[in-house]
Structure to design on (397 residues):
């Protein structure tokens, strides 16, 4: 029986995606779980994995085409199966809208920045020192695709040395890239629609840091646990006890999510992206560390998988590595809350009539007041704090 390959939804507000390229050709064998195509979203290039083993019997949507979520883009046939009818896409392909560019006199952006090109093609051209404005695009509306850059390089098109820019001229307007436009839109919508309130606690991390040091002393470097892994583990276990903070507001009610899927904010050059650690409350601390590391690496190398994005129910954002003591984050819709974590710092504290130095960390919870109130959020943070201050409980489960 054949298996359909469809354009996946990688977020609640994703309506269409660009098929950047097929990683296998029509007629090639494919293996279940292996990447067969790449699609581009507003924030990342994401791999589509084969849902079954067999042969890519038919390519329906070709590289460079933008189609709505749910569109049939290809068909995988079982071994020996013959596809007699040629399927057609479930929705018509739509041209990708061009990014806004400044009119004459509105800025000093170079010509190459105004060329319509896929992120893959742009990165490849940059690495090769190729001037994109000299490449003929074959995608919709003249968009430069990866194959166009490959052809230009193979043909020996002239390259240009990297230009060290002095930065935008004073008063210039620099257009936002696609990721920053998506962030701007979503965060504006979040602040306008969700009534935020905030709760901050200070956590004594002495025992957590000692436990982490002991565990890492016994583990190879690739399996070491970070402070953020401890935070994610504690947040996941707390969410399992406070399902309201793991819900989403829907007009007239709350959608209670059956899974605890934590988005882990990863800073990229162009913006922030939260790949999702699924069923986080059911994973061991060791598994959380390994999977979080793999998620962050795929995000930074632009090799995301289709199940890395979308479906998050809560987000953790950590700026401790930048020596930030405390900050407030904006909720990532349609989630009900986001946890902002600062650095672990050594500071004096008073205890039992004495002043001593302790490892302290501040965490701030931003909450959608339509979903939960202050008392619920306060109890959540109380339990979260308790788990990190008595961290042996994080080793179970």
């Amino acid at each position: 029986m054949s298996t359909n390959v469809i354009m996946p939804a990688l977020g609640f507000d994703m309506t269409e995606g660009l098929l950047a390229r097929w990683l296998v050709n029509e007629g090639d064998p494919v293996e279940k779980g292996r990447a067969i195509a790449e699609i581009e979203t507003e924030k990342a290039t994401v791999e589509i994995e084969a849902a079954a083993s067999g042969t890519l019997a038919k390519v329906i949507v070709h590289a460079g085409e933008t189609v709505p979520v749910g569109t049939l883009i290809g068909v995988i046939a079982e071994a020996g199966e013959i596809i007699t009818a040629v399927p057609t896409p479930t929705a018509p392909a739509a041209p990708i809208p061009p990014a806004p560019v400044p009119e004459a006199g509105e800025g000093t952006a170079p010509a190459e920045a105004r060329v319509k090109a896929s992120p893959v093609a742009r990165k490849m051209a940059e690495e090769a020192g190729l001037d994109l404005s000299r490449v003929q695009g074959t995608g919709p509306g003249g968009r430069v695709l990866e194959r166009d850059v490959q052809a230009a390089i193979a043909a020996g098109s002239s390259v240009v040395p990297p230009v060290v820019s002095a930065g935008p001229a004073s008063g210039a307007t620099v257009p936002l890239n696609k990721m920053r436009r998506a962030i701007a839109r979503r965060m504006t919508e979040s602040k306008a629609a969700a009534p935020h309130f905030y709760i901050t606690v200070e956590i004594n991390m002495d025992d957590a840091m000692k436990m982490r040091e002991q565990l890492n002393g016994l583990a190879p470097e690739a399996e070491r646990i970070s402070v953020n892994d401890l935070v994610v583990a504690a947040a996941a276990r707390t969410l399992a006890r406070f399902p309201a903070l793991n819900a989403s507001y829907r007009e007239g009610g709350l959608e209670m999510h059956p899974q605890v899927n934590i988005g882990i904010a990863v800073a990229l050059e162009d913006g922030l992206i939260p790949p999702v650690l699924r069923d986080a409350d059911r994973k061991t601390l060791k598994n959380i560390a390994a999977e979080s590391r793999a998620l962050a690496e795929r995000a930074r190398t632009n090799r995301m998988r289709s199940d890395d994005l979308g479906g998050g129910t809560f987000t953790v954002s950590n700026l401790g590595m930048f020596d930030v003591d405390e900050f407030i984050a904006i909720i990532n819709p349609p989630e009900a809350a986001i946890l902002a974590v600062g650095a672990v710092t050594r500071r004096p504290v008073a205890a039992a009539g004495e002043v001593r130095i302790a490892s302290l960390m501040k965490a701030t919870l931003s909450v959608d007041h339509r979903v939960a109130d202050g008392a619920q959020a306060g109890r959540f943070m109380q339990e979260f704090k308790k788990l990190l201050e008595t961290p042996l409980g994080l080793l179970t489960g």
Residues 111-162 form a domain with the Dihydrolipoamide Transferase fold (CATH 4.10.320.10). The chain has three domains: 3-77, 111-162, 181-395. The CA atoms of residues 249 and 371 lie 6 Å apart. The longest helix spans residues 178-193.
